[in-house]
Amino acid sequence: MLRYFCCYVLLLYCFYQQAFTAQYDIKMKGFDEVESSNPYFNFKYMKLTKINKTHMCFNGLVEVKRDDLSADKLKINIKGYQKYPNGWQVSPLLYLEKKLLCETVETEKMIVPDIIAASNYTKDKCPPAKGVYSFTNYMPDPDKLPENIPGEQWKVSIDILDDVQILSTVNTYFNIIRH
Length: 179
Known about the structure:
5-stranded antiparallel beta sheet; 3-stranded antiparallel beta sheet; globular
């Protein structure tokens, strides 16, 4: 009887580990900012830094350069791209286009909450005031990724728009490793 009980406990433990362990690991690979003549933000002082032997994160400063845009005109695109042999292709798993920035800050659940948590920006003022914001150890949370993500190499592109014209773009690159 004790042997059956021990087997049962072991099976429960294995199930628990499988059910509550992240199914992915995210390895940050880099980022770039697309040049713009009148940008909304500047990532010049942002760096990808090593936090342990296998993982990188974002640390540094982001400057919001403008305060002349109203909340009803300021929009955001957040698009995920999967790497294929013939280049990057947009994925329907992450595709927000021309959404109001302030509304997205309040409602988006996969990327924005971790960005806000890693920064000194508070959601009580939107659009963000002109100034410099710091980021400390930002890494995406693998537990927020949808199940069965295809591929390994990914890019997330974030555009800030003044209604329709793109003002600033930052691209982040990472690998998704399955457990």
